[in-house]
Amino acid sequence: MSILNKIKKAKLVGRGGACFSTAIKWGMVKDVPGKRKFVVCNASEGEPGVKKDGYILENYPGRVIGGIKLAIDFLGAEKAYFYINHDYHKKYGNKLENAIGQLPIEFFIKPVGSGYIGGEESSLLNAIEGCRVEPRLRPPFPTTAGLFGCPTLINNVETFYNVSLVNDGEYKNKRFYTIGGESFKPGVYEFSDDETIEKILKMTKNYPDFPFFVQVGGDASGEVLNSKQLKNPASGAGLITVHNISKHQPKKLIKYWLEFFQKESCGQCTPCREGIYRLNEIINSEKIDWQLFFDVLNNLSETALCGLGMALPLPIKSYMKNVFTKLSDEKIKVENFDRKTICECFK
Amino acid sequence: MKKVKIKINNKVIKCEEGRTILNVARQNDIFIPALCSHPDFPPKANCRVCCVEINGRAKLAMSCKTKVKSGMEIRTDTDRVKKARNLNIELIFAEHIEKCPTCIWRVNCELLNLADRYKLEICRFPDRKGKRKIYKFSNAVEIDGTQCIDCRNCLDACSLMQKINYLELKGKGSEQEIIPLKSNKILEPPLFRAKDLLSEKNKSIDCIYCGQCALHCPVGAAQEQAHWDKVEEILKKKKSENKVVVAQFAPSIRVSIGEEFGLPYGQIVTEQIVSALRALGFDYVFDTSFAADVTTMVEAEELLERLARIRKPLPGSATPLLIRRGDGGEVPMITSCCPAWVKYVEFYHPKLIPNLTTARSPHVHNGGLVKTYWAEKMGIKPKDIIVVSVMPCTAKKFEVSRPELKINGNAPVDYVITTREFAWLMKKNNIDFANIEKTTADNPLGEFSGSAVLYGGSGGVMESALRAAQALACEKSKAKICERRIDFKEVRGLEGVKEATVTVAGKKLRVAVVNGIGCVDEVLKNLNNYDYIEVMACPGGCIGGGGQPIPTTQEIRRKRIEALYKIDKDKKVRRAHENKGVIEALDWLKKNKDLEHKVLHTTYVKRT
Questions:
Q1: Domains delineated in chain B
Q2: What is the complex's ipTM, to 2 decimals?
Q3: Which of A62, A122, A232, B23 is deepest in the core (most CB within 10 A)?
Q4: Which residues 161-190 on chain B approach chain A with CB closer than 8 angstroms?
Q5: What's this model's pTM, rounded to 2 decimal places?
Q6: Nearest CB to A129 within list B174, B191, B195
């Protein structure tokens, strides 16, 4: 059976966070005519809190390189770029180099200072090409016109790891989860890919004995869920971060997201460059205009140019909806955070 | 291309597949605002104000980059669209410090128009760019960071179009800023723009003042440095200071300035310009086209002189041996009436300085003649004459500040204002340009041949020089068969590089016309293939100059240039050497030997 059919049968999805069908992506790059094709392994792991790609690189470098080799062979690709963040390169570079041997796989260290956006797939193509690191307009998608305008397959570290397992008949529908925050045993764990958040927390002896909520998928872009919403599998990049309700500070948490996204915005589009700047201004003002706050926030999902800009509303809105508005005033009181007004803005 | 049917706001529209929604909407008089979009550049879709709703799509689409497909149903006016669009415009407004009282752009300002159209609060958010710098490029162009809305059109103009790469984007997010490269000499990854730039890191880069950044800026953050205020002051004070204030206007203005007053693209308004300049208070108005004929004469003669020095081809060799450096008359000869191109040569390719024709540019010829020939005729002291040029160009501002142009201590031209500044002065003084009476320019510096106005478009200088050179060569040789053409269609058009082989004085002359400095490299690489080259830094030539009305697009350039050819075709006199006024002026200069060279020729400076 061909590698593509094996991947199709195993129903692999991308483990960078978007969960796009791996077979469809591979098929697309294969079908686009083009003499030069490229493969890129995205090992930038820029989503705060997520550590599973580092874990895989440390423990299974051969699998990852094996997966990349399968892609190169399948596509007849000219070469592959191993796009890796500076820290991981320092830690696992030697191991990976041994695994690469004579294969046409070249390291490309993620440019210093390129930040969160430097891991976005079209931005990393710009980085490799030596252009300003920021997202490209789509279409065209990287599958048809990626690196140097050639069809390019970009997959995450874990995806290539899975491809290698699939090829050897060893894939067992598992994925890696990172557990962090106020947990008892933070770390990277491997479970079935349909395991619920609740069970994962329990199996790893991380289920809190205090009132809590979690952020799932990433500390920046992940969705916030309360303790009654844990019957679903962990989404995105598989991170579960535990927050202690009584210890957390709502304003500080929201400001963390806002400041993170302001710092990481590439500045191309108005809603992200200007909008997030204004969100920070509003949240720090003496009297918060919540209607304006949510208008500017919603405008990001409506008109931001890339996934980064569109990502900010999810953590803030899900936190407000699932956690903050459900807290009673006695427990947590925040100046300027009027629950009634905030609830009205949601309508 | 295949035609498809789509609906915009329920109106059925037949259009070509593959065009953008914005393009189709505008062609059908459906307004969609767009700030960062310019047909000269690929879509960037960064301002996010052109959003529309497409039936069946969850997300709002940006009309500047979304192509129409058969059956598409588009809405530009839903509450959802209005909300997103208005908020983005308000956010953009907060980047732009309103300097409306002194901004000549305020009468055309897209931001103010949108605020008015949608009843927006222009100060919904406090200004955040108050402390940004204003970068001035010589005395020609400036970029005001306090007004910039981060659309990056100036970057595209400087890099993609002109390939100068002088402008850089520093920083990211809300910190990002357009800066001239000099102030950021160390290129730090990941902020450099293109790989080739990095490899040429040590290569110095400088502005050529073409002003294409200003021509593509939607909000006047990139602008010409204003001189209209100085001109206004002089016009006020001229009586008390006993000055005679003379205006001249470039060939290309007559087919573009009408646009500023709602006239159709390419409307010819030569006589209206003369009246408007008089109404503004200028004592005399001359047509720079007169001097374009002077330039043609000087340049054609120089061309013949340089060609005469080409040695006969060696037996078996196809091309004649070219004269090389040191003889003072290098071939290929290259035009020098575009001041941005001259700056380019002086800075990037000083070795080519001997190849530039020594002829001054038309408005400098004119200014020189005004302050010598005409001054003597009128009995006015040169020092009491102020010459103001109305030009399509920002680099002309720099040109007139060159000390080597001075004639006996007087600068031939005192001030240059752009087409836009001129339009602003008229609007400010309530001159009803569209309905103003027609008058003709003053003489003896007002007559012009058809070829003179061709200077306004790419290929025009070449065509004028070839017309004159052929005719002059025939007169001298007295040969029975001698080619004398009027139309040289092969050098016309808006392609990047145009080539032709033309017979002049029995020699095959290989000519090239570079339409836009971004295309110059392929000609520079093959210099030995040519004998005569015209270069205009701005695409389209002067009709697409950095000082011209906004917008300027390929379609508009084409209409402006067509109008120039119409003027030429309708003229009885179509060759420079048949302009009697020019012959008289040149004869006068021949009698005044000490002035002749000073008025007609110039020198260049290595600036590396």
A1: 3-93 (3.10.20.740), 134-224 (3.30.70.20), 228-290+362-435 (3.40.50.1780), 300-358+450-600 (3.40.950.10)
A2: 0.95
A3: A122
A4: 169, 171-176, 188-190
A5: 0.94
A6: B195
